[in-house]
Design a protein that fits this description.
mainly alpha, single chain, two-stranded antiparallel ribbon
């Protein structure tokens, strides 16, 4: 099996290499984007999860490929996150309605 698939955490060097950027840029993005918060081990080394890497990928895409400013990328990502929260609340409400209607049907 591929080693990449089995890894749970990635070092900042591995993440930087994956996107062909300096580790200092990854650390800078971490300081600028609230949603990018990799865990740190006892030595203080950053441990990036797959979710963290997806966040870096989104930042990279917006800033490096699409030419967004940092503020523009932050705004885009916050709007995306807010939309996701709204969708989650909507799904929860719909599940409650579905459950209520199923109970009502069973009583008929």
């Amino acid at each position: 099996m591929n080693e990449e698939i089995q890894k749970r955490y990635y070092s900042i060097g591995e993440v930087a290499e994956r996107f062909n950027v300096n580790t200092s840029l990854i650390r800078f993005w971490e300081s600028e984007f609230d949603m990018l918060r990799p865990k740190k081990n006892k030595k203080g080394d950053r441990q990036f999860t797959q979710k963290d890497i997806e966040c870096v990928q989104t930042i990279y895409h917006l800033v490096k490929e699409k030419g967004y400013t940092l503020q523009g990328a932050k705004d885009f990502m916050k709007a995306k996150s807010a939309k996701h929260s709204e969708n989650a609340e909507l799904i929860t409400s719909l599940e409650k309605i579905k459950s209520f209607l199923a109970e009502l049907r069973d009583k008929l």
